[in-house]
Amino acid sequence: MAERGDGSWGRPVVPASGRLRPLGLGEVRLEPGFWGDRQRLGGEVIVEHCRDWMTRLGWIGNFRAAAEGGPSAGREFADSEVYKLLEGLAWESGSRSLQPTARGGREAPERAFTELSEEVAVAQEPDGYLNTRFGWHGRQARYRDLEWGHELYCFGHLIQAAVARLRTAGEDPLVAVARRAADHVCEEFGEDGRAGICGHPEIEPALAELYRATGNERYLEQAGLFVERRGHGLLRAGSLGAAYNQDDLPVRQARVLRGHAVRALYLASGAVDVAVETGDSELLEAVAEQWRNTVAARTYLTGGMGSRHTGESFGDDFELPPDRAYAETCAGVAAVMLCWRLLLATGEARYADAIERTFYNVVAASPALDGHAFFYANPLQQRSPAAPDGGDAESPHAAGGMRSRWFAVSCCPNNLSRTLTSLAAYVASANDQGVQLHQLTACTVRTTLPDGRPVGLRVTTGYPWTGTVTVRVEESGGGPWRIALRVPSWAQGAALVHDGQRRPVGPAGVTVGGAEGPAGYAVVEAPWRPGDELRLELPLRPRWTRPDPRIDAVRGCVAAERGPLVYCAESVGQDPSLRLDALAVDTSAPPADKGRDDQLGGAVWLRSSARPLRLPESGWPYAPDQDGIASEAAPLALIPYHLWANRGPAAMRVWLPELP
Amino acid sequence: MAERGDGSWGRPVVPASGRLRPLGLGEVRLEPGFWGDRQRLGGEVIVEHCRDWMTRLGWIGNFRAAAEGGPSAGREFADSEVYKLLEGLAWESGSRSLQPTARGGREAPERAFTELSEEVAVAQEPDGYLNTRFGWHGRQARYRDLEWGHELYCFGHLIQAAVARLRTAGEDPLVAVARRAADHVCEEFGEDGRAGICGHPEIEPALAELYRATGNERYLEQAGLFVERRGHGLLRAGSLGAAYNQDDLPVRQARVLRGHAVRALYLASGAVDVAVETGDSELLEAVAEQWRNTVAARTYLTGGMGSRHTGESFGDDFELPPDRAYAETCAGVAAVMLCWRLLLATGEARYADAIERTFYNVVAASPALDGHAFFYANPLQQRSPAAPDGGDAESPHAAGGMRSRWFAVSCCPNNLSRTLTSLAAYVASANDQGVQLHQLTACTVRTTLPDGRPVGLRVTTGYPWTGTVTVRVEESGGGPWRIALRVPSWAQGAALVHDGQRRPVGPAGVTVGGAEGPAGYAVVEAPWRPGDELRLELPLRPRWTRPDPRIDAVRGCVAAERGPLVYCAESVGQDPSLRLDALAVDTSAPPADKGRDDQLGGAVWLRSSARPLRLPESGWPYAPDQDGIASEAAPLALIPYHLWANRGPAAMRVWLPELP
C-alpha cells in the first residue's frame, strides 16, 4: 500500500522530472476558506449528489445490466461518469483517512467506493474489455465507432480512478480491473494492433499516469502512440470537421488549441505527460506554445475556454462572445489539469496564475452554493432571466441561465467531484530549494525536502476577500531553505513583510536572501525556525479591465475585477431605473468596494454608477444615429461572477458598456 | 389548362382576399437589370446545376430505388430537394412559354420537368403516400418519427411544385401525384386521423395554396388543423427544446418568431394563408405582431434571420453576432414568402421594404456571380479567409467563408431555383385603383384592372446602382387610374417628377391626384395615355448606419449602406496597412461614392478612410487600458455585401469599428 509519506501519495499527477515536485493530499491540508470550503463541498455533498442521481437513473446499474443482458440507461459514455465519481470517492476516502470531516471518517466514501467497484467489475469481459454499451450480446460491436463510441475515453476515466486509488490506498480490486483494461488497450491498440485513436482524448493522460503509478512502461508507450497518431486523419471527419477531435494536425505541428475544448485540453495534458516522461522538449514546447496562443486569443476573462455551442468548441482567434460563451465547466477542469502539468514541468508562474483565474471564475462558478445544482456552460452574459423552473430537472446543456441538478450528459458534476475532492493537491510544490505556494489559501503544509529535512507551514488568509497572506513556519529541519509565494500578475503594489521589513513586490516578484527566485514569486530564503512569519500583502483594489480591440463582441465595454475575481452585474436587486440590457457604467472612478455582505456567503460586493440608455423605438434597430444616455445615474451593484444565479433567475453581464 | 390571363397564372400565392392582387409571371416581365439578371441566373444556370448534382448524387434516382428496393442516397429529406427543383422548372417552363430566353424556349425545362415527374411518380404508393425513405420494404415505417422524418415537409414541397405547375401549365401527371398525396395527408392527419404535425412546417402553406389552386376546401381545413395543432407539445422536445419547431406555444399566442428560423417562417406563412382564406383577423394580427417583434430585435441589417448555428435558430432579442450569424439563405427565401403574403393582405409598404432588403442582401448574396456555388449561412463577418479549396466540394453548412458547389443538406441551392425563377411574381400588384410597383427594377407590366381596362407600363431603371426610376405608360384603357411606386424607407430626399412638376417625397410618400395613397408610396392618379411618364428620383447617397445599443455584438461600430444595399469591407485588395480585425473608420464624412467598377459585374464601390489600431502584445487580451489608434489613415474600399467572396478567399466585415 502507498504510504502517506511517499512521493506519490494523494497526487493526481506525479511527473518523473520537471522543475517542481507536487505536494499531495497528505502534505497539504486545506483549512476553512475559499478552497477548503470547495473541497469539503465536493467531498461531502457533490459526490453524494452524483451517486444518488446515477443510482436513480440506472447509470450505475448499467454494469450489471450489461453482464445480464438487460437494457442500458443514459448516453454511450455514462460509464465514464461512474468512473469520475469513483475517482472523487478515492480522493475523499484518502483525505478522510488522514483527517475525519464533520460528516465522519473514511467509512462512507470507502464503502461507496468498494460497492461501486464491485458493480463495475461485474461487466469486465475475460480479455479486460469493459464497456456497458459495446461488446456484450445485443450491444454494438467493440471499436466500430471510435469517433463517437467513447470506449477509450471511458477506459481513461477508469484508469484515472484506479490511479487515485493506488495513490490513496494501494492495490485493490478496482486497480486490478483498470490494469486488465489498460493491458487490453495496449494489446488491442499497440504498435502491432489497430492503428486507432479515440474521438475523445482522455486515455492519453490516464495511461501516462498509470505508468507513473505502476512503472509499467507499456502504458507510457501506448500513451505516446495515441498522442502521435492523432492529426493524421484516422478518424472519419463528420460535419464538425477534423479539428473537432484534433485530428486535423499532429500535436507537434499545431500552434493553437482548436475544436472541442475538453478534448483539446485533455489531449494537451496527455502530450505534456508523454513529453515529460520521455524528455521530449520539442513536444513540451509545442503544447506550451498552443497554450500561450490560446490564452492570448481564445480565452474568456474568466479563464473559460470554448466560444461555441456548436461542437462545444474553441472559436476563431478573438471570437469570444459573452452571451453564447460555452466555457464548459469541464473545460475549466481540463484547463487546470493542463496548467498544473505545465507548471510542474516549467516552474513558470503564468500557469499558476491561470489556474487561479480558472478556478475562481469557472470551476467555482459551476456548483450552486449548496452543491446540488451546476452550470454546464458558463456564459458571461445572460440576456433574460431563466424560467423559474429552469433548474429543477435533468437538462440539456444548461444554457438557460439557471444551474441544473443533473444533465443528460453529466460530465460536469462528476468532473467537479474528482477535482474538488483533490483540490489540496493543486496548491503547493517543493524542490531542492524549498516550498512553493502557488495558490494563496488557508492551509497547512507538512512535507520533507528532497534532502530529508522536514518542514511545516501554516498559511492564514481570508483571500480572496482580504489581501493579507501570512505564512508561519511550524517545522524546520535546520539550515536555510526557501519559501516562495506566488504574487498574482494583477497585483499592482503588493508588498512582502519579513523580519520587520516591508518590501515592494513588482510584477517580476522579489527575492530576499539567496539567489534570484523565479519570476512572479516572492521568495525568502532563511534558516527558518518555528514561529517565523512571512506576510504577503496584496492590494485588492477593485479595477476596471478592458478587452483587446480585436474581441469584437465586447467592444466599448469594461469588466470589474477585484483580486482574482471577475465581477458581474445581476438583475436581481438592482435599482429599478437600471436594465442590464440598456445601461452604461461610469468609469471615471474605479468600482467602490462595499465590503463583505451576508448575502451570498459573505462575498465582497462592489458598486459602480451607471446610467440608463434611451432606447430607439422605430421597430428597426438600425439608424443613422442612435439615442443617447439618460441623465440620471443610479448605483449598480456588482457581485463575484462565480456567485451569480444563486438568488433565483436573473439576467447577468460581466462586460458592461462604458460611458463615453 | 390555366390561361395566361387568368388571375392565378404564374403566381406562387393567390389569396382570395386582401388589399392587393399579385401580378404573376404572365403580367410582369423582368428586363435586364438586377432582378432580371437573377431570374435568368436561376432559370438558366441554377436549375441545371441542381439537376446535375442531384442526378450525380443519386437523389433523383432515389424514387426508382425505393420502388425497386435499392439503397437510398442523401439525407432523409432529399425528396424535397427534387420537388423544389421541380417547382423551379415549372416556373421556368412557364416563363419561357411566353418568351424564349437566349438558351431557347420551354423545351429544355419542360423536358426536365416531365422526366423528373415520371421518376417521382414511380415511388408513389397506392394510397398516395410518397417518400423514398419511409414506408417501403426495408425502410423505416411511415410517420414513426414526425419530429425528424420530414415526411409532411416533403409532401409540402411536392404540393408547391404541383401548384406551380397548375398555375403555368394546368393539370398534368405531377399535379395528379400531388393531389393523391394531399388527399392521403388529409385522410391520415384529418380531424379523425392522427393528431400529428411535422417537425418541419411547410405542408401548411402548401396545402393552403393547393386549396387556392383547386378549390378543394379539404386542403384548407387540413392546413388550418396543422397550424392550430402546433404549440401543444405534440412533438417530442429534443435537446433543442420545443421552441426549435415552434411547438412551445400556439401560433395565436406567440409574440415573436423563435426556434429554427426556416421552420418558424414557413409556419408563419402558412398561418397567414389560413388566416386570409378564413377571414381570421386575430390569427393574421398574431403573425403580423410576431413579424414586427422579430424585425425589431432579431433581424440582421441585411434582413438575415437566425442568430445561432445551434438549431439554425433565432437567438434572444438583440442577440445578433455578425461572425456567427447563421442567416440561412433559406430563411431569406422564407422571409420573402412571409412578407409577400403580409403585403398582399395588408398593403403595408414595410413588408415590401423588408423584401427589398432581404432580396438584395441575403437571397442575392447566396449564389456566386456564375451561379455555380452558394452560401448556406450568410454571416456579416468572416474573421479569416477560408482555405482556398473551401468551395470545391460538397460541404457541411458552408460556414467557412467560401461558397460551396453543393451541400450534404442542399436546401439552399434548390430554394434559390424556385425563388429566382419566379422572381417577377414578387414585383407588382394591382387592385381596383390601379397598379402598385413594390420593387423598383427594370420590367414591363401588362395586366387588366378589375374593371376590365387593360393597362401596360414599362419601368426603366439602373436601380440599385442608379436612383432614377422611370415609368412609362404603354397601354391605358381610358379613364383615371393610379400608379403607385414604393419609396424605400431609407430614401431621404426622394422626389417624384410628373407632368413637368417635381415634388419632394417624404417618408409617408406622396399622392398626386385622387384620394390619399398608401403610406410609403408615391402615387399618381391620372387619366393616363400611352407615352405618359412618371419619374421617381431616389438619392443614393452612401450613409453610415448605427445599431441599437442593445445589439451588444456590434457596439461601437457602423455599417455603410447605399440605397437598399448593405456594404462590407473585404480583405482582398485593401491597402496593406489595414487589417480588417484591427482598424477603425473615420465617420466624420459619409463614405465616398466611387461609382461603378468593372470588377464584380459593374457594382458601385464606396470608399472610406480608416486607421490601423495599435495592438497589445501582452499575451493576455484583457488589461486596464488598451492601446490606441495609429496616426496614419488609409483608404478602405467597400463593396456591396452580396458580392463578397467572389474574388477568392477573404476576411470580411459589415460592421466597422468607429473612430471615437
Strand pairing plus helix content of chain A: what structural class? alpha+beta
Range of helix content of chain A: 25-40%
Radius of gyration of chain A: 25 Å
Strands of chain A, count: 26
Our count of helices of chain A gives 13
Short note summarizing the structure:
The first copy, chain A, has 660 residues and is α+β, with helices and mostly antiparallel strands.
Please describe what this structure looks like.
Two copies of one chain form a homodimer. With 660 residues, chain A is of the alpha+beta class. Chain A has three domains: 21-426, Glycosyltransferase; 431-537, Sandwich (Immunoglobulin-like); 543-657, no CATH class. In chain A, 31% of the residues lie in helices and 18% in strands. The first copy, chain A, has helices at residues 34-57, 62-68, 78-98, 107-122, 151-166, 173-189, 203-214, 217-229, 261-278, 281-297, 329-346, 349-363, 411-421; strands at 21-22, 28-30, 381-382, 394-395, 406-407, 428-431, 434-437, 443-448, 454-461, 468-476, 481-486, 494-498, 501-505, 509-512, 521-526, 533-537, 543-547, 557-562, 565-570, 583-586, 592-596, 604-612, 622-623, 634-640, 652-653, 656-657. In chain A, strands 3, 17, 18, 19, 20, 21, 22, 24, 25 and 26 form a ten-stranded antiparallel sheet that branches. The first copy, chain A, has a seven-stranded antiparallel sheet with strand order 2-8-9-10-16-12-13. In chain A, strands 1-6-7-11-15-14 form a six-stranded mixed sheet. In chain A, helix 7 packs parallel to helix 9 and helix 9 (261-278) packs parallel to helix 11. The longest helix of chain A is centred in the first third of the chain and has 24 residues, at 34-57. At the A-B interface, helix 10, strand 17 and strand 23 of A face helix 10, strand 17 and strand 23 of B. Strand 17 (543-547) of chain A pairs antiparallel with strand 23 (622-623) of chain B.
